[in-house]
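quick one before i forget lol
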Amino acid sequence: MTIELTDIVSEEDLSFTKIARFTIFVFDGTEQDKLYKGITDLKSSFSATQLSCIYHLLLESNQGPILKLNDFCKSRLESESVSVNSTRRHIKELVELKVLIRDEVTINGELKSSSSAYRLNTMHNIHLSIMEKKQSKGKQGNDKAQRESASRALNAMGYTKKDLAYRSYLSAGYLIPKDVVPTEYQALAPAKRSGKNFRKIDFMENGFEYRIEAKAHDHIVTQPALLQLYALINLAISYNAKMLSTGKIETPFQNKAFPAHYLDILHLRGQKDSGQARQRVLKQITELRETQYRWVNLQPNSYDHNMPNWMQGYFSTSDFQYIVKLETNSTVAPKISAESKETETSPVLYFITFHDDIIEKIANAEIFFSIPWRIAQSQPLIFSFYMTLRKKQVSMESILLTELREMMAFAGTIHKLRDDLEMELNTFYSETKENAYSYNLCGYYIKFNENQAGEWVVNIYCDIEEMVRESGATYKSPKSAPTLPNPLKTHSKKAMTVEEMTFNTSLEQLMAYINTRLVIPHTKRYKLYKIIKVGDKQIVISGYTTDSELEIMAEFMADELNIQLLLARLCLMEFKKQFQLVGYKGQMVSVEQFQHLFQRLKCDGILTRPEFQQHNNDLIAFLEIIKSFRRQKFECWLQGQYELLISLILQTLEP
């Protein structure tokens, strides 16, 4: 279809068409009346971002016959804090879903070949498109194919589904083995994928000159991939801890490979499941598999004299790789299309084997560095900054930014370092108490300023008790260290009694029974909560279920199912560990913040609005609301700006 613009608006209103290329939306003014109810009925067929984009278009359709794409992007940025690139992506997705139709544009009969117009499709055609998409997905069997492929791969590799359930063995803090990622590797790693498959940098330490080279077939390890490495290490530790505690292995890494499901990886990274997230996981693990590191001595004649002792192992290992063997469900148990003869399955389950040096460092360590989970889930720059403060054991001092840049192996200028750090710290770590510092990085109080010589410095004060507690370790005295014992040492010393093994078997059987028989089917794959039907009552459990609420649930379940109270309690605790906490860029909403907003919305009557009556439960209504939160709402929530947050929620709910 071709749209003649002079049929819609007068030539005086077509000044924007003087530019060589333009994109517009065209409305007839009836879109909201014709589409709002139908789109709302089909809302489960769209993502939250797609739905938000559609509703915004319907709102704009009453404002005039033409809307420029740039103006629409700007409007979403101002009202919903959705970036321009994201809005353009959402428009593309809606075209693929046939919610939007793209037409050619003419002015006085002259075709504008480089310009186009979007218009909203009819409800009938949108509905047909959604049904065709669902049928197509069913034929391809995407989700089902992945599950079947993962199940077959587990069997082929000698694992069971129970072996994958090891998330409960994660430690209170995020474990960081010593010397796994040298600072030099951080300097070599690009901030993001940029097409580099080779890089080398010359270094000097105490007069000793050396070079490190990184090469890969496709792309060398990036900074996000190094954070991915730490997530994989924590999964490897928790998997081996479970195998040791259940008696399936006798020594750590008895089987060098360990299974890692992509959902567990995303959980440790504090990221939500999406197609893009899955691709990132695959790319970053592939980087760790393909990248080879080579250390070159630039002073071979003074090898023994100048080389620091800690380096000698790196020079004796040629072509080091973090991951030496990698299998996935797609390689072990692929599903091949009968028509195209191509693999229909994508990697969702990884079987990873670390380099022997990494395995040795993990298995033999008595203690690990422990860091807060939200630091591990932060941007690479914040992670590197925090780790630098920890390694240097900063207590109270001023560090020149030139020195900090060297410590962190930061590639940019000191001004770039300060600006980037302040941008991240301002978002999540602003200090709310009245003191001399601007930020609180999990116990490290921070402020940037200039010294008397005009040099930029960062002033740091470490509250030892706060820093230790934030790390997940136990604080007993000022000499307490932010470290945790190696779980592999703990579990390898502990032999299970017959009673313990029987109890664990009963717990696994109870969880399997609840998952298959009692969990309400449509909530089985929910990331935030599940509904469990026990007797004539429904139990809603999430990652924010409080201890007192969980105890009440356990007592009720024990009575209804005629089981031990301890068994019911532990079962519900295991369920609770499965759920994601909500947050933004690694900073999670606390239980107190969750309960505060829940009670506010409940008292204000927002949870009893007509659109939530189908849930028949205030908590479910609340969880459904926060599912669609994005940056602006999370920032308000995390900063305690509840009045503004509630007004934003009400704006979203308005038709």
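fyi The longest helix spans residues 223-245.
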